[in-house]
Amino acid sequence: xxxxxxxxxxxxxxxxxxxxxxxxxxxxxxxxxxxxxxxxxxxxxxxxxxxxxxxxxxxxxxxxxxxxxxxxxxxxxxxxxxxxxxxxxxxxxxxxxxxxxxxxxxxxxxxxxxxxxxxxxxxxxxxxxxxxxxxxxxxxxxxxxxxxxxxxxxxxxxxxxxxxxxxxxxxxxxxxxxxxxxxxxxxxxxxxxxxxxxxxxxxxxxxxxxxxxxxxxxxxxxxxxxxxxxxxxxxxxxxxxxxxxxxxxxxxxxxxxxxxxxxxxxxxxxxxxxxxxxxxxxxxxxxxxxxxxxxxxxxxxxxxxxxxxxxxxxxxxxxxxxxx
Length: 324
Prior knowledge:
Elements lengths: L5 E4 L4 E4 H9 L11 E2 L3 H5 L3 E5 L15 E4 L25 H10 L8 E2 L21 E3 L17 E4 L2 H14 L2 H6 L1 E4 L3 E4 H4 E3 L11 E12 L2 E6 L3 E5 L2 E6 L1 E5 L1 H5 L4 H7 L9 E6 L1 E5 L4 E5 L6 E5 L6
Parallel strand pairs: 6-8, 6-9, 11-12, 16-19
Antiparallel strand pairs: 1-2, 1-3, 3-4, 4-5, 7-8, 9-10, 12-13, 12-17, 13-16, 14-15, 17-20, 18-19
Helix pairs in contact: 1-8
């Protein structure tokens, strides 16, 4: 069956992605948190009360072997005839005139449950307050909708080409691709980044060990250890060090830190979500950080800093617990 990527949340009274629901749930105070309930997005199914279940929609993202990415799963309720989420997932077959490169990309996408093809970064024009920790709404859109869509206003919630403004959702798509695809399949995937252009998915994500002061408009990622909390703020240090050059000559390798100020956290609508991720951070072996930011170097402190402008540009994954 087609993977369900959107559901109607009864508590929020709107159609959401699982990442949007997770942001909203974890942004509530702990005393007000009760698991969300969902119905199918199809109008006939919804009127009949066809349920959809959220998996890990109540927990922060984690980088562990036992953790499953947040997703929706079907219940045993019977969907209405013509429901787009009931269509059979067909194994891709190469067309007679279809170029090998196009077929390889199409087949690779079919292996990802929610592959994102178009991403609008928070810094892109028109993206303000639309992504992740902004107003919580994943401004998604989809093309190639089934012809039997009931409501034009809901078509973006049905199977087809997917876009998002939420960094967490793009990160989940990327991590699934790393796990499920061969090297050739992974290199075939293309991503349209608003304000940047079309590129290979793997080129938009750049491990911090390969970054420099010139790295721009890329998702910088890497493992990091927790250093200290500063009120609502926090500081991490990446495991990888970077080379620093002066006048083209390498003068050494220096640590890279990420500092999130208390004011940056306070300005975010989803600050409770951020606090949930950082609950007892000293007990975590590591954190995996994905950030849309830029690097600076301090001669005084002899270190690099990864700078992000807001929490919409940051995706934090908790690592496993330390050994007792």
